């Protein structure tokens, strides 16, 4: 089976399992989605730990502004040398978060190969970090705004990391998935028509996309929150 066939088979299996129960469909879909995210995360965590535990771990970016050495375990990213390959020990190097961002700014992704069965084959592998403080006395607990101007920039990244500043918890949303939620009708009237992404009270296992000026419906994306400390 190729990737598209696996996706189609998975959709069928989820649909058969849920039958005509929309709540079950929602639950099963979320469960599978979340577990696959965790699987990928575990692979990355293991490789990152091995590289960090090596003798004098160093930054793989040739223009590293931190002298090349890695002193702290925080704020360190995994970078895939060959972006058409996955996360493996020999295809990965460590980079400081800012070095990683610079690397990908200097090496924009090559255009996608339309014949490929993997949609994100050539996407960048950097993570764009977005931080939110905790809000009190509101219907929501965290709030990130994305400006329309940042949409093109998103293509340089593999995923956006939403970070809760107070707890250090973070979740990753792949850029192609995120862009599906950032539609014209969902733009708000803040600044240049920013999109609003929130974590609502009592609904912390999902990101809530604000209705824009042209709709009154919230959209929800299930996410898994991680602690960087737990990965070490
Ligand atoms: Zn560096």
- Identify the overall geometry: globular
Question: Mean pLDDT score, rounded?
Answer: 84
End-to-end distance, in Å? 35 Å
Output the structural class. Answer: alpha+beta
Q: How much helicity do the residues have?
A: 25-40%
Biggest beta sheet summary: 4 strands, mixed
The total of helices stands at 6
Bound molecule types: zinc ion
Low-confidence stretches: 114-123
How much strand content do the residues show?
A: 15-25%
How do the SSEs run, as a string of H and E?
HHEEHEEHEEHEEEEH
Q: Using DSSP, what is the number of strands?
A: 10
Radius of gyration: 19 Å
Spatial arrangement of strands, main beta sheet: 3-5-6-10
Can you describe what's shown?
It is a single chain. With 232 residues, the protein is of the alpha+beta class. The protein has a domain at 124-232. Helix content is 31%, strand content 23%. The protein contains six helices and ten strands, in the order H-H-E-E-H-E-E-H-E-E-H-E-E-E-E-H. The strands form three sheets. Strands 3-5-6-10 form a four-stranded mixed sheet. Helix 1 (3-18) packs across helix 2. The site of zinc ion has 7 residues, from strand 2.
List keywords for this structure.
232 residues, 10 strands, globular, binds zinc ion, alpha+beta, 4-stranded mixed β-sheet, 6 helices, 4-stranded antiparallel β-sheet, 23% strand
Short account of what is shown:
This protein is of the alpha+beta class and 232 residues long.
Set out the fold topology.
Layout: H1 3-18, H2 22-53, E1 76-80, E2 92-96, H3 97-106, E3 126-132, E4 140-146, H4 150-153, E5 157-164, E6 169-174, H5 175-179, E7 195-200, E8 206-209, E9 219-222, E10 226-227, H6 228-231
Parallel strand pairs: 3-5
Antiparallel strand pairs: 1-2, 4-7, 5-6, 6-10, 7-8, 8-9
Helix pairs in contact: 1-2
The site of zinc ion has 7 residues, from strand 2.
